[in-house]
Amino acid sequence: MEMTIKELADTMGVSKRRVSYRVEQLPYDSYSKKENIVHLNDKGIATIKAMLSDESVRKEDITDRTEAKQNKDKQRTDEQFPLNGELFEQLKIKDEQIKTKDQQLNNLQKSLDYQQRLLDQQQQLSAKDQKLIENMQARVSATSVEAEEYQNKMNELEDKVVQVEKNKEEWQNSYKKLSEELTELKEKMSRKKWYQFWKK
């Protein structure tokens, strides 16, 4: 009687993997291969059963059966709910979209922070410019006051020059008049002297 690994595993209620692992420990005369399928003879079947009867091996097989059952349950779940895969893919896509949006928001926040720094710098420069303008206006105003004072003094000096010129003209007229009177007086005195001379 020959049995394949799967048939022996199903008969003993253990995993195919566990039986395959034990087959690798068997001598070559315990099995044969036909079309790449292992066929166990009576000697091989008996040896495998003896190996698997060990308690520690059975505990391992229990674990294997649990894993096999979980795999079957998962397979049944996938068959019953074929949309789970699609939902998972959609969730992955949504997750990538959220990451992309987060990155975009992060970049936008960095851009806003940069714009705010530029605005602050511009406001600081504007404040400095305004202060400079005020200082210049104050200087211009002070200069205007000084210029007005200089203009007033210049006007006063011009008035004094005009007055001096006027006084000069008056003095010249007075001097001319006095000179004429003096000349006339000298002539009179001279005539009087000659008159007295001839009178003697």
Automatic annotation (TrEMBL):
Keywords: Coiled coil. Residues 56-80 are annotated as: Disordered. Residues 91-188 form a coiled coil. Residues 56-79 have a biased composition (Basic and acidic residues). This is DUF536 domain-containing protein.
